[in-house]
Write a structure and sequence with these properties.
The chain is mainly beta and 485 residues long. The protein is built from 3 helices and 37 strands. It is globular.
Length: 485
């Protein structure tokens, strides 16, 4: 399939400055590399940028809903180089700044910094025409913005025509690219001093994109071969019996897509990628998950020639490499029931991991992220860390987890950030024990606030002082009674 270079002029806003004066003070980013800490926050020289509160965009039915959410879920900034000026851990700090007014904390969260610009995703507000010619809002589609770190020079750089199922930021040959699958469009946006975008493949069913580099996660890397792999459905107008899928690849820097694998009647579906190791399922092999390690092999037949069975299951998800950066130990992943499993590639072992806290099993959890050989998990009430080093050295698959933080209501989706010291997450406000000054009787009803705000907790508790402050509220609350005066 030839490369598609059409530019969607109707939805791109390159150079479309939304301008105005800077909203916060200017800072300079000392890092020359991409900064990505997770989808909910990004740390730049001690200044934390984040979605102040979390909004579930599935509840949006009108622009009024968007505007209401924007009052709390805006892009905020907090200078953490100084002590947080807060009454205590349960009160918003004084110095929360609003950088931009768009909804930045939401179901399709994504943000990162490159140079002196921050890039962030917001729910789409542009109406789209449906098949019957009606104009509708699709808030599950995404608009990408970028602005200077003080909120100045804001510009809209892309609006998707479908919901994003994967988005990453990659560096190849000295250039940076946002790569995403939105609906059935595979999109490339080159970023930096200039911004340009193109749909590089249409009618895409699945894709294998390397994960965004995150310097604070042990084992994360910028190394990859420059090829994006994807699948499309095989069709032939002259032969209705043609079926299955084409596996294709395209070099991110330039070039046309080329078919690297197809077999009549065989459908390949990508389910993950770590560096240059591709994971996928194939029809006709319903009880097997396959992998193709194409590291160092850029030949056209690399996908086929390096294929082998990875795990016996109908499907798996959330595949993550376990690595110290110098040694790759294997992978952890989840099955269809959400249970954590592992594959030890050095010792040829695999199986289920039993996670426990204080001798009791942990269930109904999501994997937040993995750093090195430590897995961080979240339930609706706790965040845990599981050191699985012993497992990849022949030890037991029963792992005792350390509780990082416990709260009444944690938003336990895949929304997090990690800067090497703190884990950032969304949770509802905790009840505060009244002190003597505030315990006087009053006729006023107690204010309630059911929103999820950004918090932080230390990933490692190294002292009694750390243990005494299990979390800190960072978001600025809706109710004034929980704001530090």
């Amino acid at each position: 399939m030839k490369k598609i270079t059409k530019i969607l002029c109707c939805i791109l806003g390159f150079g479309f400055l939304l301008g105005g004066c800077a909203t916060v003070g200017s800072i300079n980013n000392s890092s020359e590399e991409l900064i990505y800490n997770g989808n909910s926050a990004v740390m730049v020289d001690g200044y934390l940028y984040y979605g102040n509160a979390f909004s579930d965009i599935s509840s949006f039915s009108s622009d009024s809903d968007y505007k209401t959410a924007a009052r709390l879920s805006y892009l905020a900034r907090l200078n953490t180089n100084i002590d947080l000026e807060a009454k205590n851990k349960d009160y918003s700090p004084k110095n929360v700044e609003k950088v931009t007014t768009e909804v930045a904390g939401h179901t399709n969260d994504f943000m990162f910094v490159l140079g002196n610009h921050i890039y962030y995703a917001t729910p789409n507000r542009q109406k789209a025409i449906d098949s019957e010619g009606n104009a509708n809002n699709y808030y599950n589609y995404t608009t990408l913005y970028r602005s200077q770190l003080n909120g100045d020079g804001k510009s809209k750089i892309y609006t998707t025509n479908g919901e994003i199922t994967q988005i990453e930021v990659l560096k190849y040959d000295g250039n940076y690219y946002i790569v995403m699958l939105a609906g059935t469009d595979l999109i490339k946006i080159q970023i930096g001093s200039r911004v340009s975008a193109s749909v590089i493949a249409e009618d895409v069913v699945s894709v294998a994109i390397p994960k965004t580099y995150q310097k604070d996660k042990v084992g994360s890397t910028l190394d990859w071969n420059g090829y994006i792999f994807f699948t499309t459905t095989r069709t032939d107008e002259e032969n209705a019996d043609i079926s299955g899928s084409d596996v294709q690849r395209i070099l991110i820097s330039d070039g046309d897509a080329e078919v690297v694998f197809h077999e009549q009647g065989t459908t390949v579906t990508f389910i993950g990628r770590e560096k240059d190791v591709l994971f996928y399922t194939m029809t006709g092999h319903e009880t097997e998950v396959f992998m193709s390690d194409v590291t160092g092999d850029n030949s056209k037949n690399a996908f086929r020639n390096n294929r082998k069975t990875f795990f016996s299951a109908s499907s798996i998800s959330n595949i993550t490499l376990i690595s110290t950066g110098t040694v790759d130990y294997g992978y952890v992943f989840t099955n269809s029931s959400g249970a954590l499993l592992y594959s030890d590639i050095r010792n040829n072992r695999s199986g289920a991991i039993s996670l426990q806290s204080a001798g009791e099993p942990i269930s109904d959890y999501n994997v937040l992220f993995v750093s090195g050989r430590t897995v961080y998990l979240s339930t609706t009430t706790s965040i845990y860390k599981a050191d699985i080093s012993s497992l990849f050295n022949g030890g037991s698959a029963t792992i005792s987890c350390e509780t990082v933080v416990t709260m009444t209501a944690i938003y336990d989706g895949t929304f997090y950030a990690y800067d090497g010291t703190y884990i950032y997450f969304y949770a509802r406000l905790e009840e505060v024990e009244e002190d003597e000054e505030s315990s006087e009787e009053t006729d006023e009803e107690e204010e309630t606030d059911e929103n999820y705000y950004l918090y932080r907790t230390k990933a490692s508790k190294n002292s009694e002082a750390d243990a005494g402050t299990p979390y800190e509220l960072l978001g600025k609350t809706q109710i004034e009674s929980r704001q530090t005066k």
